[in-house]
């Protein structure tokens, strides 16, 4: 599998896959920017409608954090899928199909952070 | 922009308000073009202008129309640049000392592509018109923004 991939890239012939929505990475990035604009403009309305206890700045930082989580993705189809999911979340937030608890789930206030290094996991328990 | 204009309006209103000298006779069309010219001058010059008009009014049959309809000051490339810099200095991720006309957002100021989107949105709010994303992604330094706004507003 790795050798065939290496020969493919060595010959310069990429496997052509059917795009989801955008044809290349630039179009996909444009969609991401449009989604970010929509979320950025929506945050003050969300804070007002749901009567959240966060400030608009905190909400916008959270939006930026969620976008930065997927910063490393390069495949346009994956980017399109993430944009579609983001749009679904945005629609649910705008139309108030969500509730305050759903919005605040982004903030993970009451969760204890899961252990990451070996020793913490060992102290936490034997479940991997 | 709104904060700057509000401050000016409050300062100007106190200086101009002279109800006793206001003569509402006839059309008062003669004063309106003068008011438009006065809007471009500085605040102090404007106040002196109005006080002069009010002093001349009793001897003059022309009515002193001091109801000024709100109008934005005319856009010049310098005023656009001033407003762009004002907005950029308010942005907390930009260091105001490092800000130049030609400083690239990503290379010189170390901003993200999403930061650049936020800056373009702030410019949209400032100048009051939508900037489509196709053209927004090319605006990479304040000079570009000034040129784009001047182009869109048909200024030389």
From TrEMBL, chain A:
Pfam families assigned: Complex1_LYR
A GO cellular-component term linked to this record: respiratory chain complex I
InterPro entries the UniProt entry points to: Complex1_LYR_dom, Complex1_LYR_NDUFA6_LYRM6, NADH_Ub_cplx-1_asu_su-6
Domain of life, per lineage: Eukaryota
Membrane topology: Peripheral membrane protein
Assigned keywords, A-Z: Electron transport, Membrane, Mitochondrion, Mitochondrion inner membrane, Respiratory chain, Transport
GO biological process entries: response to oxidative stress
Residue span, Complex 1 LYR protein domain: 31-92
Cell location: Mitochondrion inner membrane
Quaternary structure (record): Mammalian complex I is composed of 45 different subunits.
Family per record: Belongs to the complex I LYR family.
Protein's job: Accessory subunit of the mitochondrial membrane respiratory chain NADH dehydrogenase (Complex I), that is believed to be not involved in catalysis. Required for proper complex I assembly. Complex I functions in the transfer of electrons from NADH to the respiratory chain. The immediate electron acceptor for the enzyme is believed to be ubiquinone. Accessory subunit of the mitochondrial membrane respiratory chain NADH dehydrogenase (Complex I), that is believed to be not involved in catalysis. Complex I functions in the transfer of electrons from NADH to the respiratory chain. The immediate electron acceptor for the enzyme is believed to be ubiquinone.
Name used for this protein in its record: NADH dehydrogenase [ubiquinone] 1 alpha subcomplex subunit 6
Lineage: Eukaryota, Metazoa, Chordata, Craniata, Vertebrata
Gene it is expressed from: ndufa6
TrEMBL record, chain B:
Compartmental location: Mitochondrion
Keywords from the UniProt entry: Electron transport, Fatty acid biosynthesis, Fatty acid metabolism, Lipid biosynthesis, Lipid metabolism, Mitochondrion, Phosphopantetheine, Phosphoprotein, Respiratory chain, Transit peptide, Transport
Upper lineage: Eukaryota, Metazoa, Chordata, Craniata, Vertebrata
Main location: mitochondrion
The protein's role, per its UniProt record: Carrier of the growing fatty acid chain in fatty acid biosynthesis.
Cellular component, GO annotation: mitochondrial membrane; respiratory chain complex I
Molecular function, one GO term: acyl binding
Family stated for the protein in its record: Belongs to the acyl carrier protein (ACP) family.
Name the record gives this protein: Acyl carrier protein
Keyword Lipid biosynthesis (UniProt): yes
Residue span(s) of domain Carrier: 78-153
